[in-house]
């Protein structure tokens, strides 16, 4: 433990046995279980909201979340000698969700269903007297419009380049097709029930995790914990399932049987409304992986393109038909 960590830890009523290095944090083994010490760069209002959210989730039956500890003065954060702010949270010593393990994946979907049964129950009114003061997840219509514009900018940029790489020629070859997918998804979403459902979610205060992926699901001693709610906010709950589902399915080459098992695992705990199920189908048609690769290229060093980016594009093309087949099977 360095002097910096020790100075912050002294401000808490905990007894540390030993420290471990974690992902961007220090893991503390204490007499009251594992804790996590990490720097906090957000606003106090955001921290207060997260604390209330986690307390609500804990009190309503989902105990395995990274609750924020208060220091000896009752504050949610502490400062070091340089003025930097730090927080300590509960932590779970175990392994992240293994995307190669079907059981881990299905249990991750079940955990999300349990979480949504709590955060989708008009939770906003319990966290704040003014729901508008609560953070919100992004509007998908605006997001798709922005992504499509970014694809067009990249397309125009590459077309005007004199000397093009193989990677750039490959993007040009497929851009019209994938921009077509993006435009179709945008139009379908805009004319669907999405605007009404998003407004309802904002008004009712339904809270999404905001970053529900396998890194934020921890398996520890027969427990399934969900951590890192920094991106949480009001929104349609199916957005969480979409993010988890898409990332897992990409790892499994859009295996149809497994995809339906994931959805059923979640649906068994929280029944998916028909409108949300239709939105999930639309979201799955957006070429998000293609956009990510192209956007990474456009905002990066264009004089040197990693071989890995070319491999990612080939994977996108290979999986497109399989993804379409899965969506048709829904």
Fill in the keyword field for this structure.
single chain; 330 residues; alpha+beta; Phosphorylase Kinase, domain 1; Aminoglycoside 3'-phosphotransferase, Chain: A, domain 2; 5-stranded antiparallel β-sheet; 3-stranded antiparallel β-sheet; 12 helices; 10 strands; 13% strand; globular
What does this structure look like?
The model has no long low-confidence stretch (mean pLDDT 93). Helix content is 53%, strand content 13%. By secondary structure, the protein is α+β, with helices and mostly antiparallel strands. Helix 5 packs across helix 11 and helix 8 crosses helix 10. It is built from twelve helices and ten strands. It is globular. The protein folds into two domains: 3-93, Phosphorylase Kinase, domain 1; 102-329, Alpha-Beta Complex (Aminoglycoside 3'-phosphotransferase, Chain: A, domain 2). The strands form three sheets. It has a five-stranded antiparallel beta sheet with strand order 1-2-3-5-4, covered by helices on one side.
């Amino acid at each position: 433990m360095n002097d910096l960590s020790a100075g912050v830890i002294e401000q808490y009523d905990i007894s540390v046995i030993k420290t471990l290095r974690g992902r961007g944090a220090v893991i503390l083994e204490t007499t009251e279980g594992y804790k996590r010490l990490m720097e906090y760069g957000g606003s106090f209002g955001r921290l207060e909201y997260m604390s209330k959210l986690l307390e609500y989730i804990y009190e309503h039956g989902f105990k395995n979340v990274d609750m924020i500890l208060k220091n000896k003065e009752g504050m949610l954060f502490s400062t070091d000698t340089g003025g930097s702010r730090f927080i300590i949270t509960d932590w779970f010593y175990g392994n992240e969700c293994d995307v190669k393990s079907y059981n881990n994946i299905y249990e991750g979907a079940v955990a999300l269903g349990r979480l949504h049964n709590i955060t989708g129950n008009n939770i906003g009114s319990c966290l704040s007297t003014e729901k508008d003061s609560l953070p919100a997840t992004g509007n998908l219509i605006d997001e798709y419009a922005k992504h499509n514009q970014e694809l067009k900018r990249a397309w125009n940029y590459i077309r005007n380049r004199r000397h093009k790489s193989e990677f750039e020629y490959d993007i040009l070859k497929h851009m019209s097709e994938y921009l077509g997918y993006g435009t179709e998804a945008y139009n379908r979403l805009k004319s669907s029930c999405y605007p009404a459902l998003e407004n309802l979610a904002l008004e009712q205060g339904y809270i999404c995790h905001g970053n529900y992926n396998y890194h934020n699901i921890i398996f520890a001693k027969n427990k399934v914990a969900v951590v890192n709610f920094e991106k949480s906010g009001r929104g349609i709950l199916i957005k969480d399932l979409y993010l988890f589902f898409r990332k897992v399915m990409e790892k499994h080459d859009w295996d149809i049987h497994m995809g339906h098992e994931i959805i059923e695992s979640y649906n068994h705990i929280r029944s998916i409304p028909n409108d949300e199920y239709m939105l999930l189908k639309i979201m799955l048609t957006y070429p998000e992986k293609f956009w990510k690769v192209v956007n990474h290229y456009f905002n990066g060093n264009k004089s040197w393109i990693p071989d890995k980016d070319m491999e990612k594009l080939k994977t996108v093309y290979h999986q497109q038909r399989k993804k379409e087949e899965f969506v048709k099977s829904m």
